């Protein structure tokens, strides 16, 4: 059991967000179905101290960084750790926001699970050189259970999560799985925050257990979306539809794209019936890392473009959106640069997977919404959209997000012809149900913009 001191100091503050933690951690780890979670522990450091934590090495202090965070400032420390919880914890998920501030030679910044002692634990570590590793640590022996290449930048926040269940250990970064492995190094133990020849800030630590429940909890605290963005578009979006250089009939079904596909501004057509049926095939399916550019999609365009992983959609134009213009299904970072879409009775961009959609230099007219974070998919994630230099004409809304899952929408340089709502807030629900519209407008938490970011014409 957690100590009485920990109960008094943490649960009083945590009680307002206990239900949210279940969804936040489960969504971040990306289960194929949601799980019931009981909150074991949480700390956002808003009380200004590290009571309930035990320190081992380093220089730790609570400092302001937007909100109150705990910071380890001695980059020369070989092994700086904070521990919390109890050594009897077995199967659980721990999550924290982590911001590397500096890396020295051999440096790393990590989140710990099942710390059986000060040098025995599982660690999800951010390393310089854009690497993430899931490690089993026992004394001086470090076994890498798995890893991934992804942007690791000092000064940027990342959400790290570790799930330990039996001998299985899984780690995620910003809601996307980084690694999974099996190990018998430790069967029980506390949680921890750690730096090795590095300095870093930590915030919003939570620990839960697992089971099953629908994802209808109260609002969660959004994580900052990844900061990897495409270069900003400097000229206003074109509002003139391009003339096709030729026609390219789609005779053999969906076109599979790997690498870069350049359509030379030809019109690709046709798939589907032009309606809102949910089972239509896409014209293009992009593999992870693929780019599609200089394409015009004619009508009917079925379900448009599917991104199965990280993707870039550059200078693509939809003459008549059928079901959706593009659906983002896998990966963590998607870029829509330039182009335009019209005649979307529902939405233009559908976000089903995790991560962040960046939309820049885009034009849309006669649409329902430009972007919608799925509110009733079979898997629930925290999703983000960043829009810059976008023009819409005759739209109902620019973006719809699910605040109970911690979604965020950020807007800059948005031009609206008409009276479209900038940001609609929904309560996400389990698959098969309809999300409820619960609000709209800027709040600085989920819908992030100021009046100077929006121009009405």
From TrEMBL:
Biased composition (Low complexity): 208-221, 236-247
Obligatory cofactor(s): Ca(2+)
Biased composition range(s): Pro residues: 222-235
Annotated spans, Disordered: 208-253
E.C. numbers: 4.2.2.2
Swiss-Prot/TrEMBL catalytic activity: Eliminative cleavage of (1->4)-alpha-D-galacturonan to give oligosaccharides with 4-deoxy-alpha-D-galact-4-enuronosyl groups at their non-reducing ends
Keywords: Calcium, Lyase, Secreted, Signal
Residue intervals of the 3-keto-alpha-glucoside-1,2-lyase/3-keto-2-hydroxy-glucal hydratase domain: 45-207
Main localization category: secreted
PANTHER family per the UniProt record, alphabetical: PECTATE LYASE F-RELATED
Entry similarity comment: Belongs to the polysaccharide lyase 3 family.
Name of the molecule in the record: pectate lyase
Taxonomic lineage of the native organism: Bacteria, Bacillati, Actinomycetota, Actinomycetes, Micromonosporales
């Amino acid at each position: 059991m957690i100590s009485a001191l920990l109960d008094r100091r943490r649960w009083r503050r945590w009680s307002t967000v206990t239900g949210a933690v279940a969804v936040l951690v489960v969504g971040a780890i990306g289960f194929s179905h949601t799980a019931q979670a009981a909150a074991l522990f949480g700390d956002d450091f808003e009380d200004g101290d590290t009571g309930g934590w035990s320190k081992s090495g380093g220089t730790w202090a609570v400092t302001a960084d937007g909100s109150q965070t705990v910071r380890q400032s001695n980059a020369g420390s070989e092994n700086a750790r904070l521990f919390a919880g109890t050594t009897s914890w077995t199967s659980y998920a721990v999550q924290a926001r982590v911001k590397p501030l500096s890396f020295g030679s051999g440096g790393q910044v990590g989140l710990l699970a099942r710390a059986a002692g000060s040098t025995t634990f599982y660690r999800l570590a951010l390393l310089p050189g854009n690497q993430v590793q899931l490690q089993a640590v026992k004394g001086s022996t470090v076994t890498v259970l798995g890893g991934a290449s992804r942007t690791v930048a000092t000064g940027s926040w990342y959400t790290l999560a570790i799930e330990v269940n039996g001998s299985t250990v899984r780690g995620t970064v910003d809601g996307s799985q980084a690694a999974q492995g099996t190990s018998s190094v430790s069967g029980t133990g506390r949680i921890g925050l750690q730096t090795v020849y590095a300095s870093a800030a930590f915030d919003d630590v939570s620990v839960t257990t697992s089971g099953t429940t629908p994802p209808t909890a109260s609002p969660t605290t959004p994580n900052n979306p990844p900061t990897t963005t495409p270069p900003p578009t400097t000229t206003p979006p074109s509002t003139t539809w391009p003339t096709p250089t030729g026609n390219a009939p789609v005779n053999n079904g969906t076109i599979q794209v790997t690498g870069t596909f350049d359509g030379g501004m030809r019109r690709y057509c046709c798939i589907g019936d032009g309606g809102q049926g949910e089972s239509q095939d896409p014209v293009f399916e992009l593999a992870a890392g693929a780019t599609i550019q200089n394409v015009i999609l004619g009508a009917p365009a079925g379900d448009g473009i599917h991104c199965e992983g990280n993707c870039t959609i550059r200078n693509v134009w939809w003459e008549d959106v059928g079901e959706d213009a593009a659906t983002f299904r896998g990966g963590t970072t998607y870029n829509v640069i330039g182009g335009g879409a019209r005649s979307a009775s529902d939405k233009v961009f559908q976000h089903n997977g995790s991560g962040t959609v960046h939309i820049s230099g885009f034009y849309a007219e006669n649409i329902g919404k430009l972007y919608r974070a799925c509110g009733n998919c079979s898997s629930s994630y925290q999703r983000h959209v960043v829009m810059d230099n976008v023009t819409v004409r005759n739209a109902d809304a620019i973006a719809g997000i699910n605040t109970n899952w911690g979604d965020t929408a950020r807007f800059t340089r948005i031009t609206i012809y008409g009276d479209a709502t900038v940001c609609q807030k929904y309560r996400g629900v389990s698959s098969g149900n309809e999300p409820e519209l619960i609000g709209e407008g800027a709040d600085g938490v989920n819908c992030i913009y100021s009046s100077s970011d929006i121009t009405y014409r």
